[in-house]
Design goal:
With about 140 residues, this protein is mainly α. The longest helix has about 40 residues.
Length: about 140
């Protein structure tokens, strides 16, 4: 079966797409077991708007501490680290196989990086103009 939302290939007997988490047609057409226990299980599993967990269901990929530390240390690689980091933020931001939280982190980090670059350029221009003005005035006094 093909997911209608993301186009990923998914097994025929799953209730949710294992790639994006959208409900499949199989889950809508599946026979109801015990109405009371099914409603209880469904309300417990759908807390927070997430599909139920277990075999055949969407399960977000959680990143460990080492993964976060590694991603945070990339910009500190001498010479090429900053450029590699910017490229990787764009890659991570658009990677639909990653957890949505991670993609949002990459988007936020990219926005903050852009703001930092703009502020740095503005400060360099302002302080550069101030220093140039001081040097020009200093030379004219002598």
């Amino acid at each position: 079966m093909i997911c209608k939302k993301c186009g990923a290939e998914i097994p025929d007997n799953v209730a949710f797409c294992t790639n994006c988490g959208v409900r499949t047609e199989v889950s809508a057409a599946a026979p109801q077991q015990d109405a009371v226990s099914n409603n209880v299980n469904q309300s417990n599993n759908m807390a927070g708007g997430m599909p139920p967990q277990g075999a055949g269901y969407y399960q977000p990929q959680h990143m460990g501490i080492g993964g976060w530390i590694g991603r945070m240390l990339i910009p500190f690689i001498p010479i090429v680290g900053g450029l590699v980091y910017l490229i990787m933020l764009f890659v991570w931001m658009g990677d639909n196989t990653k957890d949505e939280t991670f993609r949002n982190w990459a988007k936020a980090k990219l926005i903050l990086t852009a703001i930092s670059i703009i502020l740095t350029i503005l400060l360099v221009v302002v302080f550069g103009a101030a220093i140039a003005s001081i040097i020009t005035n200093y030379d004219s006094v002598w």
